[in-house]
Amino acid sequence: MIRKPKSKLNLLRQRIHIIIYGTDTVAGRLFDLILLGLILLSVFLVMLETVKGFDAKYHHELIILEWIITGFFTLEYLLRIATTNRPRNYIFSIFGIIDLLAILPMYLSFFLVGSKVFSIIRALRLLRLFKILNHPKFTGQSIHLLKALNASRGKITVFLYFVLISTILIGSIMYVVEGEENGFTSIPMSIYWTIVTLTTVGYGDISPGTPLGQFIASMVMILGYGIIAVPTGIVTAEFTRTNTNKTELEKNSCENCGVANHNPNSKFCYHCGHPLTLK
Amino acid sequence: MIRKPKSKLNLLRQRIHIIIYGTDTVAGRLFDLILLGLILLSVFLVMLETVKGFDAKYHHELIILEWIITGFFTLEYLLRIATTNRPRNYIFSIFGIIDLLAILPMYLSFFLVGSKVFSIIRALRLLRLFKILNHPKFTGQSIHLLKALNASRGKITVFLYFVLISTILIGSIMYVVEGEENGFTSIPMSIYWTIVTLTTVGYGDISPGTPLGQFIASMVMILGYGIIAVPTGIVTAEFTRTNTNKTELEKNSCENCGVANHNPNSKFCYHCGHPLTLK
Amino acid sequence: MIRKPKSKLNLLRQRIHIIIYGTDTVAGRLFDLILLGLILLSVFLVMLETVKGFDAKYHHELIILEWIITGFFTLEYLLRIATTNRPRNYIFSIFGIIDLLAILPMYLSFFLVGSKVFSIIRALRLLRLFKILNHPKFTGQSIHLLKALNASRGKITVFLYFVLISTILIGSIMYVVEGEENGFTSIPMSIYWTIVTLTTVGYGDISPGTPLGQFIASMVMILGYGIIAVPTGIVTAEFTRTNTNKTELEKNSCENCGVANHNPNSKFCYHCGHPLTLK
Amino acid sequence: MIRKPKSKLNLLRQRIHIIIYGTDTVAGRLFDLILLGLILLSVFLVMLETVKGFDAKYHHELIILEWIITGFFTLEYLLRIATTNRPRNYIFSIFGIIDLLAILPMYLSFFLVGSKVFSIIRALRLLRLFKILNHPKFTGQSIHLLKALNASRGKITVFLYFVLISTILIGSIMYVVEGEENGFTSIPMSIYWTIVTLTTVGYGDISPGTPLGQFIASMVMILGYGIIAVPTGIVTAEFTRTNTNKTELEKNSCENCGVANHNPNSKFCYHCGHPLTLK
């Protein structure tokens, strides 16, 4: 909160702050949209540069565009530090670190050939969308999602520990049964196969060749069937529970923006002004 | 609703309208069944034409049959426009557009070789089944299905956005780790691999070759395990909730046709006449 | 129910009836166990005969064993007809038809070479286990399972119809995009690929080769993600509902055998005599 | 419980007992952590020994390390027997048998070449973690998980029996339809393919080559879709039910350690001393 601007510089600083950090003014929203567009474009450029055929044709254009975007991102990063009152808070926040890591690889590419590919970390900047879409309905969905996942964490950890021990044992059995001639060259390789099979991915780069191996593999697949039901069951049970709780809590919620706990007598949402139809 | 037919033509027009649009008369139901049969046949013909061995043998017969069906569809389309009182409503409705797109590719094939294959869009006409099966029980199922999916939309969008960012990052890591010699020729290709793995499809056209790559792939698969639980959990929680609500609302529903909210004292369903056993 | 046996033959017939059809006497249970063992053995024999290496070694022994079992099954079939009072009911029941189909292929093999492999239909006789395990707890589980699946049938049919139309359209798009040089030789073949991908099976016998094809394939996989959640959600919601209903109905159920609706004052289960701990 | 130590030896025995079996003293916890670390290290060593490139380089070091760990495990095993009052209880407990099996393969390797690989059974010793993490919150999660799985056992057995019969029949049909030239060399092989397909693993080592075979395979995949929903539905319904019951029972539970059923008036958890916020 910047109060009482004392000079023209301060006034400019305050204006830029509102544009960069704010989401309520037209300029602020426009800036956010342009920024998001540039992040998307930038991620696409880094991707396209690795496509040999495309890079051969447009190498020059790609590099110029990347430097323009990197320049913009650098300017934005510096302005963010300059216009905030607590630069440290921003610099060491998760978003601040991501913003820095998003521009570093380009500058490092002068010294280290091939470091440019790490610019892909810019994809993480796409998480800014959640800051831009600072809408209660939207944030509510994310929070509900994270809450259910968080509540399932304990059981899923226990479950994964059992799965880990099982994969080691199954992998070792398959190593002994199938042996190197069928692609099970070592226990770690066999464990890799077991995970590929248990998760029903099934690349087929390694597959059992002996009748006994195929029999054990069949058992593993049917086991994987039961196993895939467990995390699904855990997460679903949490969703169902939090869903029920939510329904009770949000009895007096606005249909438009999702803000809950309105006074039962109020006729308009205090957040977005939408007429309320409270049940 | 066409009232007071003034001429023979008008009377004919009204009769055709009842046959084409109606589902209550014998002729109307028969027309719908024949239409559905022709749509199915037509879709099969377009498919079969692409099978080299079959097309070589029966090329001539296939083309004649296709033109007969296209002719019938064209006639039907024109009659639908001619017999309705509001042709614009039909022409610009979803079903009207599909009906037009279903006959266009055949006529376009005179000018554009190979455009005939787009006749496959006729498959969309199969959605007419829902208009024909205008049964409350059946429609209820569809509505329940769509409601649950619609309610899950918000959370699934948030979830897919996180998955998108994850696939970009995982794909880039695998591109750096595995490199071109193992098939990870570019970041977009690696992202394709990540999606193939995360969704547990696992073609095996690209699979990690280095120990580190296989280790990361194993982690991705186990992550995919947890991830597949999320949309399932979201959709299931919605189904459970709408299921519970439905049970309460449909307390006085007919066992035969599913129509709900009967008067608790009524002894027969007002829709199908089936005796009611209200609980 | 055979009353008043008038001759020795009738007495014998009655005794055999109790052994073959009954599950309460020691002889009846023993007969059922031996029968189930023979069915299992027979299924294994038919399987093993198709394994070239094994058949080459033990061809003679396999054939003798198969004829012995077929002889026993034929005798059992005839005795079942002879000892029941209503032979027609048995002959035209599902189990009666299966019993006949289980022995026919062996006799047909005299006229039709290769018909012996259809003896595998004996696997269906394994369903007799449910008749033998005539235990309320066990039957309850099966009924609960079938009820939930039956209740989901309507929604799953609607869902599969949508999936069918989608696979036709996606398959056609991929046929146009990928073409024959990447294995998408015809629309039916492309539809086969679409089903392989949507269900996350992913053999990899056909996989997209063009960038656009891989992009569409990625979209299809993510769609498959959402799609797999739907039947799971439907079935789970039904299980949850029937589970809840069951809990209410079976309040006074026996812990040992599962029989429900006991008189709240009774101290022992009327079915198995186990002490009751009613809540 | 060892009371009244009469000699120095007895005192030592008591102390070692507390260190090995106890988890409350610092020495006891330290011993458990070191033991767990050694188990993990040992499992990794057995794995690495099978990796040809690594074993060639560090064969000598691997063997020395393995013998040191085996020595430590042997000593621990003997001390566990020596310091407990009821050695039989320990020796014939599951953990006692695992502890013995974990050291046996190394000693057997003097007589039987290649038996060393079975030392991988040490992975089962990782289950000790649950004894070490003797935390109510953690144990509660495991118990909840096992309870839900146990409650689903009956239905899942019935379900798997149906799946088994289906795989035999589908496998046989595919054997007849596809034949040996497409890799379906025998009925057991075709059953293996059916399981690979039904569970959506889909290696692609065997895949249908005839149009009819591909059509049947498509049906099997869509069936597999419905089928995967069943165990998930069963497990989820149980999780939801036990979740609901849990919520009611644990109304007065501690947020920190999960211990439930506190006196509604208590202000601190009787187990961990954390301030309670009972609702």
Question: Quick gist of this model?
Answer:
Residues 246-251 of chain A have low confidence and may be disordered. Chain A contains 9 helices and no strands.
SSE topology:
The structure is a homotetramer of 279-residue chains.
Chain A: H1 8-21, H2 26-49, H3 52-83, H4 87-91, H5 94-108, H6 128-132, H7 136-178, H8 187-198, H9 211-249
Helix pairs in contact in A: 1-2, 1-3, 2-3, 3-5, 7-8, 7-9
Describe the structure.
Four copies of one chain form a homotetramer. Helices cover 68% and strands 0% of the residues of chain A. By secondary structure, chain A is an all-alpha fold. Chain A has two domains: 8-134, Four Helix Bundle (Hemerythrin (Met), subunit A) (Up-down Bundle); 144-245, Orthogonal Bundle (Helix Hairpins). Chain A is flat, with a radius of gyration of 27 Å. The two termini of chain A are 39 Å apart. At the A-C interface, helix 9 of A face helix 9 of C. Chains A, B, C, D: It is found in: Membrane.
